[in-house]
Amino acid sequence: MTETEVRDSAIQDSSSYDEIIYDQLPHRQGNLRLLETIGDLYGVEPVDIHHCRVLEIGTATGKTLIPQAEELPESQFLGIDLSPVQIDVGKELLRSLNLRNIELRAANMMDVDESWGEFDYIIAHGIYSWVPPVVREKMLEICQKNLSPHGLAMYSYNTYPGWLFKEYARDIMLLHVMQANEFDTKTRIQEARVALDFAAEFAANRKDYFASSLAWMQKHIKDVSDHYLLHEYLEEENAPCYFTEFCRRLQEKDLQCVSDFHWSTHYALKKGERLKPLLKKEQSDIMLEQYCDFVVNQTFRSSVICRSGLNVQFREKEILNRYHFFMPIGCTIEPIEAKEEHPASWRFALKSKEFAISRSPLMDLVGEYFTSNKSGFFTSNDLWKAILPKLPGGQDVKVHLDGLGVILSRMVQEGIITVVLHPPTDRVSDPRRPYARTFVRQMLKRDATVVPNTMFEPVKINPHEAKLMKQFDGRRTITEYVTDIQNEIRKGRLQVGHNGVPIQADQRDDITQMVEDIVQKLRSMRLVI
Prior knowledge:
Blueprint: H1 3-13, H2 15-19, H3 32-41, E1 53-57, H4 66-71, E2 76-81, H5 84-97, E3 102-106, E4 119-124, H6 133-146, E5 147-158, H7 163-178, H8 185-203, H9 209-223, H10 226-233, H11 243-252, E6 255-260, H12 267-271, H13 285-296, E7 300-307, H14 319-322, E8 324-326, E9 332-336, E10 345-350, E11 353-358, H15 361-372, H16 380-387, H17 397-413, E12 418-420, H18 438-445, E13 450-452, E14 458-460, H19 463-469, H20 478-490, E15 496-498, E16 501-503, H21 508-524
Parallel strand pairs: 1-2, 1-4, 2-3, 4-5
Antiparallel strand pairs: 5-7, 6-7, 8-12, 9-10, 10-11, 13-14, 15-16
């Protein structure tokens, strides 16, 4: 297939994206604060995100770039996508924000050349595995020719070995939907689910690994959105690869992999003892990562890429004194009393991950600090200053400081806390005048029920929170919002309650408490300042 044929077919293929809009939340792999941190952590000396140039390939409606353009007015953003329909949706949102440092353009990546200039950050999430080989080649050439000397790219793609079984599920769904070319898009999606349901139910009585794997895939497919199913499993192109193969392709273009975006995922595994039975000699980091992919059955990677001439070296010792820390939304912390053979500990849980650190006077102070500062950004020095006056005497300060370093390092490795070089620096706001970013308020005005916070963590918003938050432009006080709510209740246009108890218009103190509680909750979710 020639480049012209690929370009023409790619434009035709964009129709499926036109029909089912990818109205996604911003993806974390495109968060410049985190990409910059990874580059800095590995010694690449990335360009400061406050003064950079960014390209996103496959930007859809631009929701990964738009909030960053709002927060980083001195940087320039360009998002391209084959789908004019999705670009138009993004442009309509841009008009409401009045941003001047971002362009969304309906364009084919095959047209990107050196005349487009250099970019300090290039983002392509969910593209590389789903395009023909010549387009994958073009994507690497864009990095080779358009990435600035210290630039970073983030390309995500499906990987083996995890995709070996997913290919079975994809193939049976494709076999079924391709038997009837007259299927429209929605019918294809419906029939794909039918095909997998049939296979899973047919195998259910076998009670072996095949049946259990099919049952897992059946549940997975039931849980995913129509858009995800269509473009992840039913596109004509889907080419997973092994990590070592991807790195070889990078090397051919004078590029190298800095790290996976989720760099801490394999960190403890590579550093520990568990892989040693497999390692008969010292291995490169690429080979260690490939071993990790095999033992955890990796299905997907988000590789951070730079030019091959840069010295990539993980700066572990810099973690404690160079970065800010924050706890992901949804992380729970609780002290656990000793029970039988289990010592007293602090337990941390995030999604399906859970781990514990044994209690000690130092760990108790750290746990209390995290409990009361779950939403904030802090340095190790901030933490040290807070706990130093409370530390028990009789022990050398250096011992405590070393112990604190061990605790923080372990929490970073486990993904319970995250590091960032430049934490968000939203406009200074009077605490009495709540402020939410314009991008988020516009999403709420479009009836969004889940919105991104400053670190692109999804936060579910209920109707009462949304109604208030849409007004949080930093100009009005909580007192004014309370008066508005009283008037709305009196006119019969609003019913409110707090902690399950209805509130009447004359109960001003209760309304005030309700509003303050909502504001505090939204601040704890990093949505409001």
